[in-house]
Structures are given as structure tokens and as C-alpha cells.
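Q: Here's a chain of 86 amino acids. Please give me its 3D structure as C-alpha cells.
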Amino acid sequence: MSVFIRPEVSGLLSKTVETWLHTDKPSLPKYDRILELKERLANVQTNPVYLILDPKTEEILGRLDGATSIEAFRTWLEESLAAASR
């Protein structure tokens, strides 16, 4: 089951604007631009990587690299959103 639809996560995600950069599909239009954005924003080539960005400054307020448990993802999301509201 996807972590994003779990009740303990989906409520928190509703406080964000979600953007996906699909780097696992080279046939997508503008694939090179997608890779460029991922490299600029996340400075990483691995999947998955999750970022909480300040929408005005693009400052990274929270970062999570790699798969994790639902509880760890929820905790990371709560902490990142708290940092964003400061």
C-alpha cells in the first residue's frame, strides 16, 4: 500500500503542494529537463528522494533519501512541515 494514501500521511500531505519528477521513465517528454531539476533541487541521482522546499526561496526544509517505513515517513513529514511554518 502506498504511503501517500495512508490516513496518518495523507492529512499532512494536504498541507503541501506535491510535485513529482518521474526520473524512471526516459520516454517522457522533457526527460532531460526533469533530470536537470532533480539534480539542481536534490543534488542526487538516486530514487526515491523526498524534499520539502520553501516555495519562495527553494530552501530545502526537509529531505528524506530512500524508502522508509510509514511511521518514519510520517515523522519526517511532521518535522519538515514544522520547520516550514517557522
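Q: Can you summarize the key feature?
A: The chain has a mean pLDDT of 88.
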